[in-house]
Amino acid sequence: MLDLDALRARYRQITEAEPEGLWFAPGRVNLIGEHTDYNDGFVLPFALERKAVIAGGRRTDDTLVLVSLELDDEVRVPLADLAPGTQGWSSYLAGVAWALREAGHDVGGATLVMTSDVPLGAGLSSSAAIECATVAALADLYDLDIAKMDRARLARVAENDYVGAPTGLLDQAASTLCEADAGLFLDCRTLETQQVPLPMAEQGYEILVLDTKTPHSHVDGEYGARRASCEAAASILGIPALRDVTDLDDALGRLDDETLRRRVRHVVTENQRVLDAFEVARSDDLAALAPLLDASHVSMRDDYEITVPTVDLAVEAARAAGALGARMTGGGFGGCIIALTRAGEADGIGRAVADAFTEAGYGAPEWFSATPAPGAGRLA
């Protein structure tokens, strides 16, 4: 539970005034569609109730004062000194101010005090939550009329160009555009979206989110290597992106490199799984999502090679304990799994995974049952 009173108190301590507002943006779970976004493909995420919250107000000294409540850290950055490549937690907030100013928006100084209960390095988009909350805060503080998708794009610019993480638009779009009790079907080429109802409780299901506590980072070489391999394959095939593969067998036959073949197979089949999940979500029984989740995990494990032993064990243990389907979610190399369970069974399945971790000598995971939540906005 976030302590918003402590957030306001920290802001008052710095400024001797009340914050002009509180803004939030959620983390997200990607129901299905991993590493398809930067291949111009399809994704189907939903927002979490866990979120980043910022208490903010304007300053007249052209300085950003950035504070993390959890880290008990304060960073001061003159607007004139904003420069891509800056490291550390504050770069996710400073990068948004930089992106807004680079886009021509008249953004001045601000005090931004942040708190978040989105787990770090878990694949639940803690960075996008921070960025999108910052966009919401600065847009309101400086009376900027920016459409939701454009806000997501600016947050992505901050992550790509300022922080240096080569992510797609999935995380920021989900954090900004999602609605309660729905998933967001996003075409990452056209940026067309559609809200897809996910009546989990009505149909007697839950989504278990389990953090393996194996942290990952998108700023490392593995994520960039996967993206580069997809771009290389698309170039060989003579298409703009792997989304444009229409005959998988033909495409695989034209690639000599086995690694590229595996990467292409994952992206193309994962895109189809998103389209299939979109149709399932519009049907009367969400249980049909289960085999899609299972197939997605196998593809990420064998073809895209982005899972790790803790994640694979979590999926196997969840399925053995009664989960209908399970898969890793997020960029990979650690982080979280999700599992579709019957209502009332998610916590017991989480405990079964914890038991399996203990037996294997791994540290204890954490888990919760996820409810699709609304995207970024103003709390007060």
TrEMBL record:
Site (Transition state stabilizer): 28
EC code(s) of this entry: 2.7.1.6
Residue numbers annotated as active site: 171
Keyword list, A-Z: ATP-binding, Carbohydrate metabolism, Cytoplasm, Galactose metabolism, Kinase, Magnesium, Metal-binding, Nucleotide-binding, Transferase
UniProt source species: Tessaracoccus lapidicaptus
Enzyme class: transferase
Top-rank taxon, per record: Bacteria
Subcellular location: Cytoplasm
Name the UniProt record assigns to this protein: Galactokinase
Domain Galactokinase N-terminal: 10-57
Family stated for the protein in its record: Belongs to the GHMP kinase family. GalK subfamily.
GO cellular component labels: cytosol
Function: Catalyzes the transfer of the gamma-phosphate of ATP to D-galactose to form alpha-D-galactose-1-phosphate (Gal-1-P).
Binding-site positions, Mg(2+): 127, 159
Molecular function terms from GO: ATP binding; galactokinase activity; magnesium ion binding
Domain (GHMP kinase C-terminal): residue spans on this chain: 281-357
Short name of any one Pfam family annotated for the protein: GHMP_kinases_C
GO annotation terms (biological process): galactose metabolic process
Keyword Metal-binding listed: yes
NCBIfam families associated with the record: gal_kin (TIGR00131)
Positions contributing to substrate binding: 34-37, 223
